[in-house]
Amino acid sequence: MNKTLHIALSGLNAIDSPGPGVPVARGLREASGFDFKIIGLAYENLEPGIYMPGIADKVFIMPYPSEGIAALKERWEYILSVSKPDVVIPNYDAELLPYIRLNQWLKEKGVASFLPTEEQFEERQKYRLTEFGEKYNIPVPESHSVNNLSELAEKGKHLGYPLVVKGKFYEAGIARSPQEAEDWFLKISHKWGFPIIVQKYIKGEEFNVAGLGDGNGETIAAVAMRKQYITDKGKAWGGITVTDPRIMELTRHFVTKTQWRGPFELELMKDARGDFHVMEINPRMPAWIYLAVAAGQNIPLATTQLAHGEEVKPMPSYEPGIMFIRYSWDLITHVSSFQEFSMKGER
Amino acid sequence: MKINPNLAINDTGFAFDPMTGHSYTLNSVALEIVQRLKQGQTEEEIATGLADEFDADPVIILKDLLDFIEILRNYELLEHE
Predict the structure, then answer these.
(1) Which residue, of A63, A98, A104, A124, has the fewest CB within 10 Å?
(2) Residue A124: is it exposed, middle or buried by C-beta count within 10 angstroms (0-12/13-18/19+)?
(3) Is A295 within 8 Å of chain B by CB?
(4) Domain holding A227: CATH number?
(5) CB of A320 less than 8 A from some CB of B
(6) Together in a domain, A161 and A235
(7) What domains are there in chain B, each with its CATH number?
(8) With an 8 Å Cβ cutoff, are B18 and A243 in contact?
């Protein structure tokens, strides 16, 4: 990779429930021997990554995924008329499907990506987790999708309380009674729509794996961490890399069985007996991806290389005991920067 | 009875388990017990050694030692038997 590659990426909302864009850009910036230009794709004009020094060389405002593929395509036609991205790394769950469907068109325009297939994306959806676990022999908690309060009551009775109520893409809450389940159901469905997922509650410790599959069953990278500090939104505010061979075995099993293509995050729960359960599979890099880079596996770089058609060998190991502690920082900028982006939709 | 071989312990009593990501702080007596376990000493040998060192009743020390070992077991810091 000799020439300067232009990488378009989303997820610049480095807020309390952060997107992965800023740490992905950071990983690329720090890849020695490579020169990248970062093109940020933002959905809101106050996403911090738009204004953070050293993150994006150019930023474009994007239409929300809910506006459909036609709007996304139209925006990309404009982006391609004024810049030349070589690779795109979408970092939000909600935009994955539009990008998977637009993949061929973007490829013809010279913009590569390294994404899961539509089938892989669909079958690991939260509301299909039970079926997914059975198909690939992966331990998952029993989950059901519900679309109304009577279905919620029925599944609640079946699963017992406490149980977990989850949104299709985001947000989750623990319900200790049918009333609490109804409260979460109404709150989450109002915000994120249907279906709502109800899941058997497993008490334990949360571990996460950030990884990368090559699409042929090979695990190119995998770094596990234990959440040390969790916010009220369930996000890791601190974490530490761990090297439990059982986690790595489970991760490799997932990649081999599903032939996973692209970056992913496994959310795991270790129960009181020491058994691991896969709670969620996210089809993208997590917001803590820079920890993987710091521990020795530059997953953003490897994803970019695979997208660009280069061969990437599996990364053998990483360092345990590497910690991240997230912090907040007031970035000062002038209204002229905000004005420029707000009015022009780019900067 | 052996300490989990992955457990990294420094001289100040800070211990880190790379498999779970948990860390622990050991006081001087706990550190000595863990080091003796690492050397392969039995519970009886450790109790006798500590009784000599602290001029205390080995029976009482053995009881406290077994309680401490139970804590280590609960934290999964012992090698799987």
Answers:
(1) A104
(2) buried
(3) no
(4) 3.30.470.20
(5) yes
(6) no
(7) 8-74 (1.10.10.1150)
(8) yes
